[in-house]
């Protein structure tokens, strides 16, 4: 995606190195090795879920590597009169910092953003992945989940990084608990002594219901309230379903993973594969995209998809364990630390 | 840290933090990297203090390359313009390489023709890497480069590594050959070219200037051992750059020997523990 300038000699050096036996990459990695991936969740306090991800950060240095920040924000939408959909909806957006692509003009940068947004949005907001707990009141109110991703730096393999960060942010997302409420007009004759004042009349004998009684969660509920403002809520449903993306960089004889920017520029064909691994179900291929001027035969594509599934599974497992670690770090360990003070 | 004349006389290097008062503005003048506030000269960048008579300046540690005439630089062509190339050399402005300051095929003394202007892309095109020397400066501070030596010109058979420019010291020679069959060109702008070793006679060709070879875009055949050595040297340079160790030829040689002694693979060097061990081992040797 990023078109760095690369001389013909460099390009051919990279290509022949990759096709040598054994294949050799500029930094000595094997073909299927990823660079170090750093992940931290809960980085944005105002967001419902957030994650910061870096692929290939240079040790001891502030910079280097592909850096991506993802955050989710929930917003209430009106289904009847607004844009809302019954059961909630998800909108994804990718923004690229101009410093990530200093050589691109602002128009070209917009195109890159649009392209990345489309891939992410179409994959994440697909109905097969839709979480169940984004509805608030049937046919009245629902949550709109905004997933925003910012690319701070691109050192290659930006799409894998975006999907990993998006998955981590969605995994981290908490949906506030809501309770439906309904207002009922006071029955005539009750509370006559209080005039126009609205007093709590729940204890009065003979008076049935409080105006804010929610025990009988009627289908006619008009509005909702947050039972506990300070509670973060329950986790977003479908944690295990969010997809991971692997990019296979395809050379005539073989393929490799996690390309750096110069490698990307000298590879003719890229295959993006997004897989979802729901528990107790076979995996789903959620998105597939083939980019570049190179050629591919159909049987080759099949083996590539099969290989991609294997790599995606490994990536998924690694990411899952890291996310659980992060959860532990932020909740259990933080609590223990607080208690021991 | 408020300094007076005696502190400067010792010749010791002092580091500053941004906002740190250096000395009184009555006794000294402010130079680059400083400002005056409350009658004090204050550093505006992190770096080393330099003094010329009464002029105090701070040379920043992390900065773009500031060129000087005679420096050897490695650069990348960004633009082809009438009778000149624009070259990215990690400086504040792109450098300029004039058509009149390159060697053209058909003899060093040949006159430049109009036909040369029309086929400038056959010599250098966008993205090409070259090694050159800083020749002069234009009025606006843009450096002008030249490649009028057989050692300068287009780069092939290797890969580029970037380190902070402050790490490249001025050496007797910036063309280094390591015994593992790897050539290094340490550009003072922080760009380092790591390539396959070329024998002296191959490099200079015969008496006639071999245009085919000099402006070629094709790599020679490089065997796998050399490729592995190039990757290993590149990783060593990356590690040393990350640890902010100034690079010299002996240091690189020591580091390479250490890395070979460890008998690890090339990618083991990416491991931060091994990187730390490498830096401490090299520091102990020198």
From TrEMBL, chain A:
One of its GO terms (biological process) is nuclear mRNA surveillance. The keyword Cytoplasm applies. Its main location: cytoplasm. It is found in: Cytoplasm; Nucleus, Nucleolus. Gene3D superfamilies: GHMP Kinase, N-terminal domain. Pfam families: RNase_PH. InterPro entries: ExoRNase_PH_dom1 (IPR001247), ExoRNase_PH_dom2_sf (IPR036345), Exosome_comp_Rrp42_subfam (IPR050590), PNPase/RNase_PH_dom_sf (IPR027408), Ribosomal_Su5_D2-typ_SF (IPR020568). GO terms for cellular component: cytoplasmic exosome (RNase complex); nuclear exosome (RNase complex); nucleolus; ribosome. This is Ribosomal RNA-processing protein 42. It comes from Wolfiporia cocos (strain MD-104) (Brown rot fungus).
TrEMBL record, chain B:
Residues 64-135 form the RRP4 S1 domain. Residues 15-52 form the Exosome complex component N-terminal domain. Residues 158-198 form the K Homology domain. One of its GO terms (cellular component) is cytoplasmic exosome (RNase complex). SUPFAM superfamilies: Eukaryotic type KH-domain (KH-domain type I), Nucleic acid-binding proteins, Ribosomal L27 protein-like. It is found in: Nucleus. InterPro entries: Exosome_cplx_N_dom (IPR025721), Exosome_RNA_bind1/RRP40/RRP4 (IPR026699), KH_dom_type_1 (IPR004088), KH_dom_type_1_sf (IPR036612), NA-bd_OB-fold (IPR012340), S1_RRP4 (IPR048565). This is Exosome complex exonuclease rrp4. It comes from Wolfiporia cocos (strain MD-104) (Brown rot fungus).
């Amino acid at each position: 995606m990023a078109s760095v300038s690369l001389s013909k000699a460099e390009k051919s050096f990279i290509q022949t190195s990759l096709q040598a036996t054994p294949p050799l990459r500029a930094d000595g990695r094997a073909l299927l090795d990823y660079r170090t991936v750093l992940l931290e969740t809960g980085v944005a306090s105002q967001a419902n879920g957030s994650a910061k991800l870096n692929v290939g950060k240079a040790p001891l240095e502030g910079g280097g590597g592909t850096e991506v920040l993802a955050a989710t924000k929930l917003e209430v939408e009106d289904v009847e009169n607004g844009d809302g959909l019954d059961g909630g909806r998800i909108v994804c957006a990718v923004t690229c910092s101009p410093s990530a692509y200093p050589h691109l003009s602002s128009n070209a940068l917009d195109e890159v953003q649009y392209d990345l947004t489309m891939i992410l949005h179409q994959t994440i907001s697909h109905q097969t992945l839709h979480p169940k707990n984004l509805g608030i009141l049937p046919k009245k109110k629902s949550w709109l989940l905004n997933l925003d991703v910012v690319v701070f730096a691109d050192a290659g393999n930006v799409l894998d990084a975006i999907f990993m960060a998006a998955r981590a942010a969605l995994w981290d997302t908490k949906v506030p608990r809501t309770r439906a409420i309904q207002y009922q007009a006071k029955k005539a004759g009750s509370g006559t002594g209080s005039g126009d004042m609205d007093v709590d009349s729940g204890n009065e004998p003979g008076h049935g219901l409080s105006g804010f009684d929610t025990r009988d969660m009627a289908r006619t509920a008009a509005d909702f309230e947050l039972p506990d403002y300070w509670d973060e809520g329950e986790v977003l449903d479908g944690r295990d379903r969010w997809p991971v993306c692997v990019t296979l960089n395809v050379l005539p004889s073989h393929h490799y993973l996690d390309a750096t920017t110069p490698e990307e520029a000298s590879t003719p064909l890229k295959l993006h594969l997004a897989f979802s691994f729901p528990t107790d179900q076979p995996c789903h291929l959620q998105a597939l995209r083939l980019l570049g001027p190179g050629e591919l035969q159909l049987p080759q594509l099949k083996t590539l998809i099969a290989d991609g599934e294997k790599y995606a599974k490994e990536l998924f497992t690694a990411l899952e364990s890291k996310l659980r670690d992060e959860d532990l770090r932020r909740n259990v360990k933080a609590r223990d630390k607080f208690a021991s003070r | 840290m408020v300094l007076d004349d005696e502190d400067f006389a010792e010749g010791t290097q002092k580091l500053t933090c941004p906002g740190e008062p250096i000395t009184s503005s009555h006794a000294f003048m402010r130079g680059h990297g400083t400002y005056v506030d409350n009658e004090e000269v204050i550093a505006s960048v992190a770096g080393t203090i330099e003094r010329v008579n009464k002029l105090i300046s701070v040379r920043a540690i992390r900065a773009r390359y500031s060129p000087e005439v005679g420096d050897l630089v490695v650069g990348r062509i960004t633009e082809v313009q009438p009778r000149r190339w624009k070259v990215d050399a990690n400086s504040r402005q792109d450098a300029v390489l004039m058509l009149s300051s390159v060697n053209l095929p058909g003899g060093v003394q040949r006159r430049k023709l109009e036909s040369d202007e029309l086929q400038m892309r056959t010599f250098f095109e966008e993205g090409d890497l070259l090694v050159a020397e800083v020749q002069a400066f234009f009025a606006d501070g843009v450096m002008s480069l030249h490649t009028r030596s057989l050692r300068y010109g287009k780069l092939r058979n290797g890969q580029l590594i970037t380190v902070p420019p402050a790490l490249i010291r001025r050496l007797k020679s910036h063309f280094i050959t390591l015994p593992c069959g790897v050539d290094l060109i340490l550009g003072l702008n922080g760009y380092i070219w790591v390539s396959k070793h070329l024998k002296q006679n191959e490099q200079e060709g015969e008496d006639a200037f071999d245009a085919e070879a000099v402006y070629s875009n094709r790599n020679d055949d490089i065997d796998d051992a050399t490729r592995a050595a190039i990757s290993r040297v590149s990783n060593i340079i990356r590690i040393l750059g990350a640890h902010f160790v100034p690079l010299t030829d002996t240091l690189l040689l020591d580091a390479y020997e250490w890395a070979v002694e460890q008998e690890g693979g090339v990618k083991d060097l990416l491991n931060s523990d091994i990187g730390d061990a490498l830096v401490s081992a090299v520091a102990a040797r020198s």
